[in-house]
Each structure stands twice: as C-alpha cells, then as structure tokens.
Amino acid sequence: xxxxxxxxxxxxxxxxxxxxxxxxxxxxxxxxxxxxxxxxxxxxxxxxxxxxxxxxxxxxxxxxxxxxxxxxxxxxxxxxxxxxxxxxxxxxxxxxxxxxxxxxxxxxxxxxxxxxxxxxxxxxxxxxxxxxxxxxxxxxxxxxxxxxxxxxxxxxxxxxxxxxxxxxxxxxxxxxxxxxxxxxxxxxxxxxxxxxxxxxxxxxxxxxxxxxxxxxxxxxxxxxxxxxxxxxxxxxxxxxxxxxxxxxxxxxxxxxxxxxxxxxxxxxxxxxxxxxxxxxxxxxxxxxxxxxxxxxxxxxxxxxxxxxxxxxxxxxxxxxxxxxxxxxxxxxxxxxxxxxxxxxxxxxxxxxxxxxxxxxxxxxxxxxxxxxxxxxxxxxxxxxxxxxxxxxxxxxxxxxxxxxxxxxxxxxxxxxxxxxxxxxxxxxxxxxxxxxxxxxxxxxxx
Length: 446
Ligand SMILES: C[S@@+](CC[C@H](N)C(=O)[O-])C[C@H]1O[C@@H](n2cnc3c(N)ncnc32)[C@H](O)[C@@H]1O
Fold this sequence. Notes:
Blueprint: H1 16-36, H2 41-47, H3 56-80, H4 95-109, H5 113-126, H6 133-151, H7 162-172, H8 174-183, E1 190-194, H9 198-204, E2 208-210, E3 214-217, E4 234-236, H10 243-246, E5 255-259, H11 265-272, E6 276-281, H12 284-297, E7 302-305, E8 317-323, H13 338-341, H14 344-362, E9 365-375, H15 384-393, E10 398-400, H16 405-408, E11 421-423, E12 437-444
Parallel strand pairs: 5-6, 5-8, 6-7, 8-9
Antiparallel strand pairs: 1-3, 1-4, 2-3, 9-12, 10-12, 11-12
Bound molecules: S-adenosylmethionine.
C-alpha cells in the first residue's frame, strides 16, 4: 500500500487517474456539504454542475458514494468515534464528511484501500483542513486494520435518528423496525409506469412486471437513456406510489382533481386512464417540472399553480387524489438525506397542512364523490390518525370506502381492518421492497 502523504503537496502534479479519483470525491464532498447545510440531495445533485462533466462510471460512483454516506452515517460514526480525540472539529466540522466518505469507501464499497486512504488525506488538504491530514491518515490506516471487525458490531438501526427509532418501535415494534432500517440501506430498483401496454414495455426494457402494472429492473444510471423515455412512453414511479391513483377505479371521462400533483407521476396515470385532470401544486418550479413531464409524455391537463387551501373549483368534481406533502419516511432508500434533515417537529406542521388540504378538498366533491388520501410516510400521525380525525370531524358526511383485496392487488397484504392500506417496505422484501405508503379512500355522502 502506498504511503498517504499527510503534508500539503507543492510539487509533482497528481497523475491523471489520481486526478479523476480526486475529482469524483471532491464532487461528492460538495454534495454532502450542501445536504449538511439543509439542501435535499436531488436538489444538490441538480445544482452540482461538475457532475455532468464526469464519465458515466464516475457519475454513478459519486451517487453511490453520496447515498451510501447518507444511509450509513450512524454506523460509520459509531466505528470512527473512538478513533478521534479532537471531534467535533468546530469550524472545520465538514472534515467529518471527508472521513465519512473515506470510511464508506473502505468498509462498505470496498474500493481499493490505497485510493481510499490517499484520496481522503488529499481531500482534507484541498478543502483547507491541512491540520487534520495527519489525523485523517491515522484514522484511515486504523480502519484498514480494524474497521471491518468494528463495523460488524453495528446495525442499520444505528442509522436512524432517535426520534424515528422511537416512533417506529412504538408503532411497528422492534422486529419490524430492524427490518425497516435494513431495507432502507438498499439502493432501490428502477420502477416504471407505462403509458400503455405494460407487458410489451416490460419486455422492451427487460424488466419484470409487478402487479400487472409496474415494470421493475435493476438500473443505477440515467433512466432517460433507456428505450422509450424520449418518446414519452413511460415515467419513473415506485410500485407502491403507483397504487393510490388506481384506487379511484374507472376514471374514464370523469373530472378528477390531482391535488399536490408535481412532478406528476399520478397525474400521468389519471390522464392515461382517460380522466379529465386538473393538476394543482403550490410550487412554481414544481409546476414547471410537471408541465415538462406531461409535455414529454404527450399528455394534457389543466395546470394550476396555487395553494390547494385557497383553490375553488368552478364545479364540484367526481374524484380527487390528494398525495399530501409529508415527512416521506417511507422513501428512505431513494432519499437517504431525510435521515439527517427531518426533525420530529416537522411532523406536526405537516399534519396541519395535510388536515387543511384534505378538509378543503372534501368540499370540492359531488355527493358520492371519492377522495383518495395518500402519503409516502411511515408515521401514523400522517396516515391512520389523520384519517380518523377527518372521519370524526365529518359528522357522518364523510366515510371510509374500504379498499378491497382485488383493488389492492399485491398490496392486499397491507390492508387494515378499516379498509385502508398501510404499506411497510419490508413486507415486500420478496420482490425487492417498495416505498412505504399509506392510502385511504373516502366518500363524501352529501
Ligand atoms: C408528495 S409530493 C406530490 C407527488 C406527486 N403527486 C406525484 O405523484 O408525482 C407533494 C407535493 O405537494 C405540493 N404542495 C405542498 N404544499 C402544497 C399546498 N399547500 N398546495 C398545493 N400543493 C402543495 C408540493 O409542492 C409537492 O409537489
């Protein structure tokens, strides 16, 4: 193994391959710094201009390294903590992220030890943490000797923030919580919804068909390069996320409002099923994205950029899909930044918003009209408890329309005794997992 230089280099330009190793780590470090400062990972990825200059292999490596750091941070910090006497690093706190990246390369991604050690020390130096280079070198070398044994004493549970661990233990039990944490560590497969003829599209894309609807395949690159994307034949959508829109049944020629619609996966499903859709979202950039997505798919909807709580439809509608903003704790595989970003107090403000959106939207329905309420959250406060509060406040004018096993398809194992759906990702381990979701269908009687 080569000697990692702990001192600043002044001569000898790095060789080109060393340069590309460093470039990808540098980009990953910038992404992690942006997430640390409060950005969402996908926003940070979009804002990172240098990533598009990398070749495909390096681009995939950056994504894998960044997402693995965010997923496994708790486990890695548990391994490293006893090896660092000067932590936290005060104003140099982001130096932690460089060590995190180094340890992930060594212990999880199993990149070569030489590249992991050298690039970690060099990145410390380049990022202005010259005085921490010696410590980084010592920690990385110690990890090459003891890291694997120490890592074995950790579990995926260590990656959950305390509030989430407590909440899941309380609601789903310790065994399910371990499994939920474990499945959240896996990169998700690519799930696709086709505009038409999913069987044929599954064969074109060499995927398997789930629930006669979702095409699933392994893929860690840029989906827009796959066959049929540019021609608008499909869109990316998790298998569980594809269920709520289908719970509205036959929507052909019906007036449907998709409330909280962007980026538009569910809007596209409703249009493909023949509905006349009004798609509402409060975010300007989000509505622009929805417009672009529908444009690519060759689909049309009436788009409204407005806060759903202020919207008043011209006429009562047949059906509403409310895919409410939520904590998204069911999507940790895709969005591991949520582990560090989400705070327990967010749940209460999200609940207020969900309540206001749902109770406002129920007033837009024709008598007998249906509203499907869904969240990609594993928190009952945003699912079961919200629905029970809505029913209580509805004074018998709003009831649950129980979802039948037939309608739930492969998700029938997630039906609750009230006829709602509580989809827990680990219960679908046999098909490679799904996002966590809650869905309920309500009817406005008058
Ligand atoms: C879970 S995402 C929706 C995903 C979308 N249904 C899909 O399938 O692609 C929630 C959306 O709610 C929007 N939103 C948040 N607060 C809102 C409000 N008060 N009124 C309307 N939309 C809102 C957000 O901009 C975000 O796009």
